[in-house]
Amino acid sequence: MEISLKTLPDEEYVAPGRGGCPGCPAVLGCRMASKVLGRNTIQVTSTGCMCVNYGYYGAPRYPFVHSLFENAGAVISGIDASLKAQGKRDGVNLFGYCGDGGTVDIGLQALSGAAERGHRFLYICYDNEGYMNTGSQRSGATPPGARTSTTPVSKLSPGERRPFRRKKDMVRIMAAHGIPYAASASLAYPLDYLRKVKKAIEIDGPTYIHLQSPCLTGWGIPESQGVAVARLAVQTCVFPVYEVYDGNVFKITVKPREKKPIEEYLKVQGRFRHLFTDGWPEEIAKFQAEVDENWRVLNALEQMANGGENA
Amino acid sequence: MTRVFISGTHAVAEAADLADVKVIAAYPITPQTSIVETLARKVSSGELKAEMVPVESEHSAMSTVVGASLAGARAFTASSSQGLALMHEVLPYASGLRLPIVMAIANRALASPVSIFNDQQDSLSQRDSGWLQFYVKNAQEALDFILIAYRLAEDPRVLLPVMVCMDGFSISHTSEPVEIPSRELVREFLPAFKANYPHLDLEDPKVFNVMAFPDHFEEFQRDKHESSRNVLVITDEVYGDFNRLFGRQYGNVEYYQASDAEVVLVGMGSMMGTVRDVVDALRAAGQKVGMARVASYRPFPVSEIRSALKSARTIGVLDRDISFGAGGILYQDVVRSLYNESGPRPRAINFIVGLGGRDVSHRTIRTCFERLFLASDKEALGTEGELQWPDENEKLLKTWEVGKTYGN
Q1: What number is the ipTM of this complex?
Q2: What is the distance between the alpha carbons of residues A50 and A126, in angstroms, rounded to a whole number?
Q3: Which stretch of DSSP H or E encloses residue A51?
Q4: What distance in Å separates residue B112's CA from the closest CA in chain A?
Q5: B239 in Cβ contact with B172 (< 8 Å)
């Protein structure tokens, strides 16, 4: 089945009326993925927003496990091994949907182990760039200059003071495991995202998708603007959308026609407001330099995969 | 049935094979390692048809068997010491999900300081995790109790995970004659696995590890407690079946010369074999001594201990562990069992022994009995005399000034 708006099923695999902030992109991302995965799915979600949104009263119409914070990768490993041992593995979509805290920080070890052992699963990290379920604390995925409750803004500090280019690049970390498929995706490009979900779930091995998931409350954006902010992240190249096959073949799947300056992305979010109002122009310049360097490297990697030609 | 000469770890691996486990996940740690090495060989050769998941930590080992059990397969793991401590967070998760997982523990001290040697601090520190705990005395029991553990864990009146604890090295690495029962008889005792608990089922989707609010949470906990107590009711039937099929009778407490004893030593694990030996020697000399070995630590056989010990004049509890600032862990359970008994109660003394592999010798046990006889002649021991260190290294206590102020 080719993924298009026409081929996606009308059937909902998540019951209506469940938790989650109005307009929450993490909820949207999971529901969208479920449209591709269907009923024969087992979902594992580590502690975080989504275990509250889906786990309180049971939202999914397929089995759902709220794991502990750091062990989603290992619980997935056990389910995979168990189904294989029982001869029941075929036709089951084993799917992790976990936040950035449970992925890039506390859950990195278990996920890394699951990947290097070669279990069959799709793991989607919904990256809202902080511990948003506990009220917006910084994580290893918080961008530089962001205000969180543990990186407060003061006269002395512009929020998160991450060294240059040190936000964990989870797609490349996963790709470095040599897994068959790792990708990033954006809610603003839904068909690109869902095609990646479909591609990943059909692979007999570990696959990973990093989904940027703007947090309305944590990032300080209006309820209606989650997807718009995600689009700006791609258009400014703050969050490039790409794939990595077998650990080393890079392909950028959405290339902005015109690379917008990052101010357009930063200024619409409350967590970066102080950069403009409190006089931290050098932080914005540093952030832009980081984005430029990451974009240059990514294009070089893609070029390398094409034998020197840019796609 | 065959009779072989094997170590405790090997016996446990044979038991897991006989139980036809489908998923094994483990991480190496001394003295457990050879259990999973043996199982890895069995899986690799095709002798055991199971998935072996060589995980990257014990936290993941326990998480992986949780996933495996949730997906409806019989799952097994093993650990020791730091590894078990690392699993700590996942243990109540497993028991709360009511997963019938069995884990073998080769008991080893907890750091710091580092010791690879035996005491029971590691598993006793997991006392309140919702797991059942059995302590065995030799390799044969280690094998037998893995089978008994699965039978109990999977009983619909229980549905709780079980630890089978054997002393590191003195059981895990000591070879002795072990009877390996036939698969047919084992299958009669422990039927082929069928997930009879809420599990991952596409036809009947459920949410696992739900949020429980204050109006529900306590009853979830109460249910684990009641199910754990059910074990004490059904063990007669389970031990009876085991004896009928394999000719070995077990109990939640093993007694030796205890019924008419004036002085009784209570304890767990391999050192109780030494106690038995000393009981024989002292009985031969006319002293009325006895032994009670606790096999089922969780659930704790409160009434049974009470009725067995209430007529003794003095009891001693051997603890191969210590709850710092309080005393032995087993002691607290034993004394608590006697407290509400009407009429005279025995005096009780707590002996801390065998920490970090210190040998529990015949001499240790004789010292304990001597002190118990002395205590029974005294009016009261006082709080200090209640806790004894029969094998203390007097020289070290002095030169290190143990318990004195640190610094210059």
Answers
A1: 0.96
A2: 9
A3: helix A49-55
A4: 24
A5: no
Name the one residue in this structure whose structure tokens are 């699993």.
Answer: B87
pLDDT at B232 over 80: yes
pLDDT, residue B298, reads 98
- In this structure, what are the phi and psi dihedrals at residue A15, rounded to the nearest 5 degrees? -70, 145
Can you say whether residue B325 is alpha, beta or left, with left for phi > 0 and alpha for psi between -120 and 50 degrees? left
Residues with Cβ within 8 Å of A308's Cβ and at least 6 positions away in sequence, in order, are none
Is A54 in contact with B207 (Cβ distance < 8 A)? yes
Structural domain spans, chain A = 25-139+168-256
Do B78 and B106 touch, CB atoms closer than 8 A?
yes
Chain A residues touching residue B65 (CB < 8 angstroms): 78
Per CATH, the homologous superfamily of domain B2-246 is Thiamin diphosphate (ThDP)-binding fold, Pyr/PP domains (3.40.50.970)
B209–A74 C-beta distance less than 8 A: no
Give the C-alpha separation, B78 to B55, whole Å. 12
- Put simply, the answer to whether A71 touches B201 (Cβ < 8 Å) is no
Backbone φ, ψ for residue A262 (5° rounding): -65, -20
Cα–Cα distance for residue pair A99/A127, rounded to 1 Å = 6
∠ CA A74-A79-A84, nearest 5°, is 125
**Alpha-carbon torsion angle B136, B140, B142, B143, nearest 10:** -150
Task: State the pLDDT confidence band at A258, using cuts at 50, 70 and 90.
Answer: very high
B95 and B129 in contact (C-beta within 8 Å)?
yes
Distance in angstroms (rounded) separating the CA atoms of residues A225 and A245:
32
CA distance B274 to chain A (A): 41
CB contact under 8 A, B71 and A78: yes
Please state, in angstroms and as integers, the Cα–Cα distance from residue B162 to each residue in B85, B126, B171, following that order.
16, 12, 19
What are φ and ψ of residue A10, in 5° steps? -75, -30
Q: Among residues A87, A41, A47, which one has the least CA distance to residue A63?
A: A41
The 3-state DSSP class for residue B106 equals strand
The CATH fold assigned to A25-139+168-256 is Rossmann fold (3.40.50)
Measuring CA to CA, which residue among B60, B6, B57 is closest to residue B34? B6
Q: Over 70: is that where the pLDDT of B378 sits?
A: no
In terms of phi and psi (left: phi > 0; alpha: psi -120 to 50; beta: otherwise), the region of B206 is: beta
Q: Where are the alpha helices (DSSP H) in A56-120?
A: 72-85, 108-117
A78/B69 CB distance under 8 A: yes
What integer is the mean pLDDT of A277-281? 90
10 Å CB burial of residue B407 (0-12, 13-18, 19+) is exposed
Query: How is chain B split into domains, by residue range?
Result: 2-246, 253-398
Does residue A185 sit in helix, strand or coil? strand
Q: In B172-213, which ranges are continuous DSSP H helix?
A: 183-189
Q: Do A78 and B66 touch (CB under 8 A)?
A: yes
Residue B324's Cβ-count burial label (10 Å; 0-12, 13-18, 19+) is exposed
Q: Residue B13 and residue A241: Cα distance in Å, rounded?
A: 49
Query: In chain A, which residue's Cα lies nearest the Cα of B22?
Result: A85
Contact A196, A243 (CB under 8 A): yes
Are the CB atoms for A92 and A42 separated by under 8 Å? yes
Q: What is the pLDDT of residue B189?
A: 98
Same fold, B2-246 and B253-398: yes
CA B19 remoteness from chain centre: 19
**What is the distance between the alpha carbons of residues B102 and B143, in angstroms, rounded to a whole number?**
12
A243: its two tokens: 């794939």
The CATH number that domain B253-398 falls under is: 3.40.50.920
Task: Tell me the residues of B at the A interface, defined by beta carbons under 8 Å apart.
Answer: 22-23, 25, 49-51, 53-57, 59-61, 63-73, 75, 89-90, 93, 200-202, 205-211
- pLDDT-derived band at A306, boundaries 50, 70, 90: confident
Residue A284: which H helix or E strand, with range? helix A281-305
